[in-house]
Every structure is written in C-alpha cells, then in structure tokens.
Amino acid sequence: MAVERTARETAEDKIAWDVFLSCFPSALAQRIRERSDTLLDLARRVLDENQKINLTGARDFASLFHDHVLDSLTLAPWIVERADKPEECQLLVDVGSGGGFPALPLAVVFPRMKILCIESVGKKARALGGLCAAFSFSRVTVLAERAESAARDPRWREKADWATARAVGSLPTVCELCLPFLRVGGFCLAQRGASAEAEAAAAQRPIARLGGRVDRLAAVGPPSAVRRHFIVLIEKIAPSPDEYPRRPGLPAKRPLGG
Q1: Closest by alpha carbon to 118, among 129, 107, 134?
Q2: Helix axes 26-34 and 36-50, enclosed angle (nearest 10)
Q3: In sequence order, which residues have a C-beta less than 8 Å from that of residue 197 and are 6 or more positions away?
Q4: Phi, psi (degrees; rounded to nearest 5) at 173
Q5: pLDDT at position 255
Q6: Strand, coil or helix: what is 99?
Q7: CA atoms of 41 and 156, how far apart (whole Å)
Q8: How far apart are CA 138 and CA 148, in angstroms?
Q9: Sign of CA dihedral 255, 115, 190, 50
Q10: At 45, is the secondary structure helix, strand, or coil?
Q11: What share of the chain is helix, strand, coil (3-state, %, to 5)?
C-alpha cells in the first residue's frame, strides 16, 4: 500500500530538510535539495517493502525519513571532504545493508559512485535488488553473502575507498568487518551513538591490529538535535593481516579486544 503524504506532512518535510542541511557545505546542500524528491520516494518505497519483509525497525514515514534517510546523509560531507579521486572511480562497501541504509541514499546523492551492498539474509538482499532496479541504481551491486566471506574475495578485498556498517555490533566488530575491504588511504565511516568517544578510545588497539587508526570523531546533525550522533572516521594506514576477518560469526560473537 502506497504511503500518502498530507500537505502538512509535506511542509514538515521541507522544514526538516532546511534544518538538516543548514550544517552542510552549500554546494552539497544544493545537490541534496535537487534530489530530495527521489530521496522521499525512496523512503516511501522502503516503507512499502517493509510491510512485506522486515527491512528496518521503522514503522512510519517520519521515523524512517529522520532516523534512516537523513542519518545516512550525514556521511555525505565526509565523503566530499576526504575524497582523493573522482566520484566515478570511488567504491563504497556497505556491510549489513538491511533496508539499504546508508547505501541507497548515498547512491542518490553520488550517482556515479560504485556501491557494494553486502546483505547475508537472502530475502533482504532480493528486496534491495528490487529497490535498485526501481530507482535505476546501475552502479549499485547487491551481494547476498556474509561480509566475512566477501572480504576474502580478491574482487573486493583492499579495494574500497569507503566502508560503512549500521547496527552490526560493537566498534571492534564493525572494524573487523569493514577494514579488510578498504584500500590503504580509504576510510571506515562508523556511525555511532552517544558513547562514541569511549568506544573509539577502547577500540584503539583492535583498530591498529586491523591496519587502521582513528582519524577523528565528528558530531553530526543540527546542533539543536535532541539525540546527537557521531561518526568515527577510521583511516586505513596499512593492509589488514590475512587472518582478518575471522570465520563467519566470530567478529560479532567474540569482538577483538585490547
């Protein structure tokens, strides 16, 4: 069943965009505004699909739009700032893509970037493939496989410029699943909550073991936001040792310690 928006809700959408984009660089904010209709359509389509298969915990348009679409877009300024090659030459790997966040909103904003969505649950991967077809995301590949296995595939290992993972576990787990995909000089953009600073401090040794280092911790979203989110930017400074990631399930079951 299609999600219909009232005139009031549409006006609220515009206000949300304006507040959210107020802290973005002007050129990027304009780029996102130009694609806002597509981003809203994407949110509606994901919500429709969510009635058939549990892609995300969001059950209404407002929560999906704010907590998933806008949250995904907080990565965009860092991609623009830290990019060292043209958009069409960049690869982003999204581990545990689920409903397509952050990968699909980023595909709207960066249509020439190559994106690999890794989703081990077959029905979710098929739904993601359907979303990509509906929006003609020709540069997005959906891989129905465990990240631990995909990271050993020479097509993907040490190739990505960016790696992301939302809601897949602790910061050491995220890093073990993401860093092996990154080339030296690439970045893991780890989206975390209020405890991000403590998490980053505690994960310093596991991150170093995987070939990374914490570059910076950045608060994202408008300063007026009730819940501040953070991005831990982790730079890949050396190749990941061959033994990582460990066999499927271990990074989450037994996260690397200090």
Answers
A1: 129
A2: 60
A3: 217, 230
A4: -65, -45
A5: 95
A6: coil
A7: 30
A8: 25
A9: negative
A10: helix
A11: 45, 20, 35
Mean pLDDT of the chain: 90
At residue 78's C-alpha, the angle toward residues 146 and 211, to 5°, is 50
pLDDT at residue number 223: 54
Three-state secondary structure along 110-160? CCCCEEEEECCCHHHHHHHHHHHHHCCCCCEEEECCCHHHHCCCCCCCCCE
CA distance 200 to 207: 9
Rounded to an integer, what distance in angstroms lies between the CA atom of residue 192 and that of residue 171?
Answer: 8
Q: Strands of 182-192's sheet, edge to edge? A: 140-143, 114-118, 91-95, 160-165, 182-192, 229-236, 212-220
Distance CA(67)–CA(58), nearest Å, equals 8
Pairing mode of beta strands 91-95, 229-236: unpaired
Number of residues in the chain: 258
pTM of the model: 0.92
pLDDT in tens, 115-145: 999 999 999 999 999 999 999 999 999 999 9
For residue 83 the two structure tokens come to 């990019």
Q: What is the pLDDT of residue 2?
A: 46
> What are 19-61's pLDDT values in tens digits?
888 889 999 999 999 999 999 999 999 999 988 888 887 778 8
Q: Which amino acid is at 35?
A: R
Tokens for 235?
């730079």
Tokens 């129905």 identify what position? Answer: 144
Residues forming beta bridges with residue 182, ordered by sequence position: 160
